[in-house]
Fold:
Amino acid sequence: MNNDDLTTDAATDAATDAFVAHRNLLFTVAYEMLGSASDAEDVLQETWLRWVKVDLGQVEDRRAYLVRMTTRQSLNRLRSMSRRKESYVGEWLPEPLLTAPDVAQDVELAESVSMAMMLVLETLSPTERAVFVLREAFDVGYDEIAAAVDKTPAAVRQIAHRARKHVDARRPRQSVSASQSRAVMESFQRALDNGDLQGLLDVLAPDVVLVGDGGGIKQAALRPVTGADKVGRFIIGGVGKKAERFSITPTVVNGSPALLAHLDGELDGVMAFHVEDGRIAGIYFVRNPEKLGAVAAETAITLR
Structure:
């Protein structure tokens, strides 16, 4: 082995060490920008292929450089996803992530990846979403964001202000604690197991909204269902027809208590929730099998 080979190996090892050290952060950046674990993994693969070609001797801050690369790849992917969503059948929900229980204890992290917040981020333009996510969730400086999105720092400040105002107007009210959410989930599950409509109504907020995502593959409500009575009857009616074949188990998805739905022993969907004032204000039921891959094993996420 000659000296050039040794130098190449050392550079590859250094690149690998840096990438692995920040991988969880990079995944979280990509996921918050895309709302899709599978697309986030693809972005990380693309970032890695570019990263190993970088001359690390010219990189002052490897973390910032990797975040910048990941953001650019995510923006490219987000623009192509926007076209895919235009032809999507029914409502589009983010791909649920199975997360470690302790994520729920990190309020900032749990809120940033919650299904309710991810849906708010869907209302931003790709550039607004990138700027908002990097600034608000990851506390990236304006100069770094400007380099990532190919804008001037002054333009980024304006975009950040506009995006923050947009999100604040739509941001879900502060959720309750993880323990309170679990108690509500237990009541919801008990009512569902017993086919108890009144028990279900007791834990649903009057203006609760249920959003289903079957992707045209599995049956789901094509439009949001609104109001406790309509949502309660929709759920009880749907489960009642297959009650003996249907079961639900508690889990943690996107940093919040959730339920896995099984039909004939096979995973049929994920129910994520937004809880306010001790009642369920939002139900997000993902049944599209193409979006259930990230609930097979826990995904490590971080804001730092």
Notes: The chain has a mean pLDDT of 91. Residues 77 and 83 are 10 Å apart (CA to CA).
